[in-house]
Amino acid sequence: MREKITAEKLLDDIFSIMQRLYNEMRSNKEKHDSHLKVFEIFAELGRTLVSADRASFWRWDKREHKLLTTAATGTQQIVIDDTTGLVGQALAENRAVITNDPYNHPNFNSAVDKKTGYVTKSILVMPVSNCRGETIGAFQVINKLDDDGFDEVEDTKRLSVAAFICGMALESDMFLADSQRDNLTELKNRFAFHSDYESKYRYKKIPMSIAICDIDFFKKVNDTYGHNAGDAVLKHVAQMLEMKTRSSDSVYRWGGEEFIIVLEGAPLAGAFIAADRVRQAIMNSVCKFEDKEIKVTMSFGCAEIDNKLSAEENIKIADGRLYRAKANGRNQVVIDD
């Protein structure tokens, strides 16, 4: 059995963590992954408060029905279905879940232990809520350091401090994510593209291309069938763009009837092949709206990303090629000036 940490030592450790958190939030405003470091410090705060060996902070993606570790001690990000494991149980029942005999608990997932050789002896999971009381994630701590196991009253009370702070931070993070998503199509929006360009695309060491595309004669769809039908076409096109691109690619609604595809690892020739495959798929598809079947085509302009240029400058090149595609008859892909 390990020696219990004194109250004075615990308080000093908490103050040190909070000072690190304060400094991190002040100094890392220019770093695109600074919020991840903040969540790691939150995880350390929870681990310290209850004297645990490991801690993990989970975000609940209700749209995808997944649970994702935003920060986790001793392992890479874990993604699981939101109905599985002790975390899933805590969210489903909206209460803290404790086990000091996990291998005999019906909801314990031992896959990580089998893979890593880690031995789990005790677990405490607490739901994390936003300011409206809606559950948005969970805080999990593993293996009480004194080997006595977690106490349902004392350790839950202590971990609630970290869970409360994490709830506020996670809610803020989720507000940011929501602001970067288009409500109609559920694609990322223009704001998200600019954020992703600076944080990911501009500094990639592999070829990257942009395809900007536009629904041909979209105004005619609205004029003929009405704006509700136009919305249905936009959602249909968004789904097709996501279905016909790779998981490594990203699709954005640029605005109106314009969309952008970022093609990872694709030089200009590869972008042409990918964009033309999407073009043909959309041309051959049908959008069903009420009792109508609506068919549309799209025009594409592609450019390989030059990381010495800004997002706007790269878009301007692709947009000029889109203009040529529209001027030359539409329903085509243009990759040169």
Secondary-structure map with pairings?
Blueprint: H1 7-27, H2 34-49, E1 52-61, E2 66-72, E3 79-81, H3 85-93, E4 97-99, H4 111-116, E5 123-129, E6 135-144, H5 154-179, H6 190-199, E7 208-215, H7 218-225, H8 227-243, E8 250-255, E9 258-264, H9 268-283, E10 287-289, E11 292-294, E12 298-304, H10 311-327, E13 333-334
Parallel strand pairs: 12-13
Antiparallel strand pairs: 1-2, 1-6, 2-3, 4-5, 5-6, 7-9, 7-12, 8-9, 10-11
What does the model show?
This protein is α+β, with helices and mostly antiparallel strands. The protein has 2 domains: 7-178, 2-Layer Sandwich (Beta-Lactamase), CATH 3.30.450.40; 190-334, 2-Layer Sandwich (Alpha-Beta Plaits). The chain contains 10 helices and 13 strands. It has helices at 7-27, 34-49, 85-93, 111-116, 154-179, 190-199, 218-225, 227-243, 268-283, 311-327; strands spanning 52-61, 66-72, 79-81, 97-99, 123-129, 135-144, 208-215, 250-255, 258-264, 287-289, 292-294, 298-304, 333-334. Strands 3-2-1-6-5-4 form a 6-stranded antiparallel β-sheet, with helices on both faces. The protein has a 5-stranded mixed β-sheet with strand order 8-9-7-12-13, sandwiched between helices. Strands 10-11 form a two-stranded antiparallel sheet. α1 packs antiparallel against α2 (34-49), α2 (34-49) packs antiparallel against α5 and α7 (218-225) crosses α8. The longest helix is centred in the middle third of the chain and has 26 residues, at 154-179. It starts with 6 loop residues before the first helix and ends with a strand. 34% of the residues are buried. The model has no long low-confidence stretch (mean pLDDT 87).
